Fold this protein.
Amino acid sequence: MALTWATPTVAQDLPRVRQTIEKLTSPAFHGRGYVNQGEQRAANYLVQRFRALGLQPLAPGFRQPFMLPINTFPGRAELRADNQALRPGLDFIAEPNSGSGHLCGPVYQPDTLVFSQPTAQAALLATPLTGAVLVLSQAQVRRLPALPAAVQAHLATAAGRLTLVSGKLTASLAGEQAPQPRLEVRAAAWPATTRTVSLRLDATLVPAYPTQNVVGYLPGTARPDSFLVVSAHYDHLGQLGRATYFPGANDNASGVAMLLELAAYYARPENRPAYSVAFLAFGAEEAGLVGSRYFVEHPLVPLANIKLLANLDLLGTGGEGLTVVNGRVFEKQFAQLQQLNTVHHYVPSLAARGRAANSDHFYFSERGVPALFFYTRGGISAYHDVLDRPETLPLTAFSAVFNLLRDFLNQLGASSAVRSEK
């Protein structure tokens, strides 16, 4: 039987959670990025879910629009080392600011002495690189800014650049574009004897891509002008070429699923909150916290009226417990969490971190809003790669984290029972 969203009779329903994550990570959503309007498809889905739950819009149509520059890879993504084809996503990815390129050229690997000896640098300057593909290690790429400007400029004349990565491939996004194609290649997949590289990468820089935050709320029954906020980013990394996409199950379909489960809980008549509870699904987090920064700069509720923001990201594991960023900044709120966890034993470990600009809580706490970022630890290591898939997501502590967050929000003013004690 298909699950439906219109009647949220059960909150924190794991089959429904699984279905939410599978929907958000499906090929139809194109990695929730900026190719084929993947992020727009995800936003449309969230608007439908918000409406079905009975949330009220914080902006017309539940959307707060904004724009951002973004580099995308909508066409071909092909790489061959001599006659060996490498697999996009598994063996290579594009650097976020990579430009387009269609080339076949010889490999050029500079001598390590180039980074320390002027004579080696002079020899490099005398070597034509036009048409060649520069192959560097990660360590060499990190040392490029220390080279003389003339040497850096000469290396940039190469037709393309490959960086050999010793560990996993970790993709990201950028709002600018380099003049040459730049790929990261898993060193274990790169044949050491490669003499010729064939490369095709289609990159398109969109200077003003229109996207949005998806914003709704439940009005408080007693203090509607006071807000508790639950946030999670719905965007991800999108596509690399036509056939490869980044599912983003843990990052952050898991956090969106938790946001929707909390919304389902508070939407039930018997759980209607005393304070208003806003549910903010931010766009463009992966592009540099763009959506949450825009909200803070154009707030739809007064920031001074937000009593707490709980930001949810990477909630699909939990075997080693839960980390709370800003737990060392907002010590009173973290102590409340600790007390709840001590009594109920929800998660095996609750760890506090300090200030960090690593998710959508950041710009809120910089403006003085008590904002905590929750993420689970342990389990799978897939992150910003094509292996962050729903079928590998254990959801080890999902139910426990839901219960902890519900109790915490209730204690802060979401529960009418707590309100009656004030």
User: Anything to note?
Assistant: Confidence is low (pLDDT under 50) at residues 1-10, 418-422. Residues 289 and 351 are 23 Å apart (CA to CA). The longest strand covers residues 204-218. The longest helix spans residues 249-267.
